[in-house]
Specification:
- The protein is α/β, with parallel strands linked by helices.
- It has a single domain (about 70-305), classed as 3-Layer(aba) Sandwich (Rossmann fold).
- About 20% of the residues lie in helices and about 20% in strands.
- It is built from 5 helices and 11 strands.
- It has a 9-stranded mixed sheet with strand order 2-1-3-4-11-10-9-6-7. It has a two-stranded antiparallel ribbon with strand order 5-8.
């Protein structure tokens, strides 16, 4: 093969430049003093002129710890009682939160077929596949079979899986006392309808509450629950009773608690499993509110045991 004079000259110039560059690098590294060993190099440190070395292990990368496995969330939006027009917005929010955070993937159902531990067919799933279930505005009698009820209760109580009760999921299964025991209570009324609710955050250390100020106003339909007790739940948020209209509430004063203790969010244990409840989610706009989205993101992570937060009951906090 014949090489032209111009190509030969270019090769010589390139080789000369490379030699000069290497010489400069070597010249910039002072030799060790007489009788002194060369300085030790930290493991993984880059060597000048030798292409560098391996850096510190990166989580999820080669040489690093394995990434946390992605969790699985079942979100159900079936309604047999009052149907909220915002239910689809709530379902979409949970799907989007999982996608954006990369903490979980989401399956959405509008029936209760997967509330079972029976082996599914095709690409269907059942409770053992999921790390948590979120019920979004699932009002009315769910008409679960006895086996389904037993499976859901043991899924949380014995298996230690998580439960998120969003807004009107509190308004369900009044003929099933164990349901109220599991989630912490039942819906009684919404005496003030949808309004700018005065809210006190009682536990600002809880992951789903840390981004809220101590006192704030939230526009939503706030529930007044029944058959709940401060002795059995950790109240996270409540309405500020000093700023509520008990003289002329929208739906009547008789539908409120006599002690005027209006919890609107709590955390609790049910056996080995974690339960998070919030009254927020009546309006379509609520599911787009960054503060509400952050609350449910952290609520899901907590019931999935990705974070820690208290379930210890406490007296009213002002």
């Amino acid at each position: 093969m014949r090489i032209s004079k111009s190509a030969y000259a270019a090769a010589l110039a390139f080789g000369g430049a490379a030699a000069v560059w290497i010489g400069v690098i070597q010249a910039q590294t002072p030799p060790p003093a007489p009788g002194q060993a060369p300085a030790a190099q930290a493991p993984g440190a880059a060597q000048a002129g030798r292409g560098g070395g391996r850096g510190a292990p990166v989580p999820g990368g080669r040489g690093g710890p394995a990434p946390a496995p992605k969790k699985h969330l079942l979100v159900i939006g079936m309604t047999r009682g009052y149907h909220h027009g915002s239910t689809s917005n709530g379902l979409a929010m949970f799907w989007n939160l999982g996608k954006e955070s990369d903490v979980w993937d989401t399956e959405i159902k509008t029936d209760m077929e997967w509330i079972t531990k029976a082996n599914p067919g095709s690409e269907a799933h059942s409770l053992p596949f999921f790390d948590a279930v979120a019920f979004v505005n699932t009002t009315g009698d769910w008409k679960l079979s006895d086996d389904q009820k037993k499976d859901l209760l043991s899924y949380v109580h014995e298996d230690g899986k998580g439960l998120v009760i969003a807004h009107a999921a509190l308004d369900a299964n009044y003929n099933w006392p164990e349901y109220a025991e599991m989630i912490g209570g039942w819906f009684q009324a919404h005496p003030w309808g949808t309004f700018d609710a005065p809210v006190i955050v009682e536990d600002q250390t809880f992951p789903a509450m840390q981004h809220f100020p101590k006192y704030l106003s939230l526009f939503d339909e706030m529930y007044s629950p029944k058959q709940w007790s401060r002795d059995k739940v950790n109240v996270l948020m409540r309405l500020d009773e000093s700023k509520l209209n008990y003289t002329n509430p929208q739906y009547g004063i008789k539908s409120t608690r006599e002690d005027k203790d209006q919890a609107i969010a709590w955390s609790k244990m049910y056996g080995a499993g974690r339960v998070f409840y919030s009254s927020l989610g009546h309006t379509k706009e609520a599911w787009e509110d960054p503060m509400v989205r952050k609350m449910y993101l952290e609520g899901v992570k907590w019931v999935m045991k990705r974070t820690e937060g208290s379930t210890t009951p406490h007296p009213k906090v002002n």
